[in-house]
Specification:
Blueprint: H1 3-22, H2 30-34, H3 44-52, H4 56-67, H5 71-82, H6 99-110, H7 114-125, H8 129-137
Helix pairs in contact: 3-4, 3-5, 4-5, 6-7, 7-8
Length: 139
């Protein structure tokens, strides 16, 4: 193939990849809003209380600490809460984790299979990857 058409084909592929990257849909983080970081405690109830008291900066900061959301998304979530949004129910947490699941996650962790343990915890709690990994790291 001559060099000219190869360059054009490569340029088209690069442009398509850039367009896909720029216009991709943001990941659905609504589930992350539900399950706070077990290490920090608190929860969406505290974020809601701060938001309703007009302490937006503190609410955004707490929400970002709990979920890892970018600043803009956390601000939008707090604004929605201030506008009367109803916080969704919180999924299972460490206290709700079945003893058999906790034992299996511990066993997998001690065998060097942390990825499998994280997957198991995520399946039973609905936590984000980061939250499940933090939990497994503490086992």
């Amino acid at each position: 193939m001559p060099e000219g058409p190869q360059f054009v084909l490569l340029a088209v592929i690069v442009m398509l990849l850039l367009l896909l990257f720029v216009f991709r849909r943001p990941a659905d983080r609504s589930r992350d809003l539900l399950a706070p970081d077990p290490a920090t405690g608190g929860g969406q109830g505290e974020v809601l209380r701060l938001a309703r008291e007009g302490r937006t900066v503190e609410a955004v900061k707490l929400l970002r600490e709990q979920t890892g959301l970018p600043l803009l998304e956390a601000k939008q979530a707090v604004d929605a809460l201030r506008a009367g949004g109803v916080p969704p129910a919180r999924p299972a947490g460490p206290a709700d984790l079945d003893d058999a699941v906790r034992a299996e996650a511990t066993r997998l962790t001690h065998r060097g299979k942390k990825i499998h343990a994280v997957k198991l915890v995520r399946e039973h709690t609905g936590w984000s990857l980061a939250e499940a990994k933090r939990y497994v790291d503490r086992l």
